[in-house]
Amino acid sequence: MVKAIRFHETGGPEVLKLEDVEVADPGPGEARVRHSFIAVNFIDIYFRTGRYPLALPNGLGSDAVGVVEAVGPGVTEVRPGDRVGYLLGPQGAYSQARVMPADVLIPLPDGISDRTAATLMMKGMTAQYLFRQVYPLEGGETILYHAAAGGVGLIACQWARALGVTMIGTVSSDEKAALARANGCAHTIVTSRENIVQRVREITEGRGVPVVYDSVGKDTLMDSLDCLQPRGTLVSNGTSSGSVVVDSQLLAAKGSIWMTRPAMVHYIHPRAHMLDMARELFDHVLAGRIVSEPQQSFALADAAQAHRALESRRTTGSTVLIP
Q: Containing H/E element for 271?
């Protein structure tokens, strides 16, 4: 038996319960992983509240790191004793240990600690596919990135700097602005007292930006569109403030805008490609170009408290659970 967070109904953080669960031996193509750190992501809130439906009761979480305890028949991707992380597979990462499909496990290099790796699986790989695949940045661009002090945002700040990209980042407070700038964000906009469109036009001398990465959604949609150059691209990579519905005629009126709503699952397969993505990310970390550590840590039993902190926007950077 191991401890795991389960929920039997959708709702607020209070539906998350710490329970004893059985962990079976791994079957063909599977591996059992003992977790050392578990990442908390905003998408976990969508599952908990029912915005993304799950059959209940169920576990929660898709992103963790740990060590392989055992493997099932036919597994060649990993071996017992390997340090691994993952961001794919069924919900249930909020647990001390679990059985996973072996082909989603990513081996961790010796120079990257479990604690650091826990901030890189979903968040670092998200920065990779946004900046290197969805709208590939080559260097020299000026971009707008919403929520620059968040878990993905702080990695994005550093990745943009490494690429020679001028990043304009929105944040909700002066404290978060200072943190984003310390991580490489060239310009910050404090949304509680500054006009996003006006500031972007000032910074770009009226030109606007070729791409906006918008994980906020409903509250920032119109500002994002108004910051774009003609034929610019809106990457809608999240909806923390609410869903986005856009009339195609609006995209035309705003300058023949391209809009995409990417999902990680469509950018990470096959396994060889996923490992290449991870290798590029790890190379930046090992070279010191990206430094990432959890900003908040909670015990596994306090998962509800972690969710409250994340939803209240009191957090910066990455949040992890410790089993």
A: helix 271-286
State the virtual CA torsion across 200, 202, 205, 209 in degrees, nearest 10: 0
Whole-structure pTM value: 0.94
Q: What angle do CA 171, 233, 317 make, to 5 degrees?
A: 30
Q: How many CA atoms lie within 13 A of 146 on its CB side?
A: 27
CATH number where 217 lies: 3.40.50.720
Q: Where are the beta strands (DSSP E) in the chain?
A: 2-7, 17-21, 30-40, 58-59, 64-71, 83-86, 97-101, 106-107, 142-145, 166-171, 187-190, 209-214, 228-236, 258-260, 294-299, 318-322
In the block, tokens 């890189």 appear at 120
Q: How far is CA 64 from the centre of its chain?
A: 12
Number of domains in the chain: 2
My answer on whether 103 and 139 are in the same domain is: no
Q: Tens of pLDDT along 94-124?
A: 999 999 999 999 999 999 999 999 999 999 9
Query: Are residues 213 and 90 both part of a single domain?
Result: no
Task: Compute the distance between CA of residue 146 and CA of residue 203 in angstroms, rounded to an integer.
Answer: 16
Q: Which domain holds residue 13?
A: 2-119+293-322
Length of the chain: 323
Exposure of 66 by Cβ count < 10 A (0-12 exposed, 13-18 middle, 19+ buried)? buried
pLDDT for 11-56, tens place per residue? 999 999 999 999 999 999 999 999 999 999 999 999 999 999 999 9
| Distance (Å, whole) CA 270 – CA 193 | 44
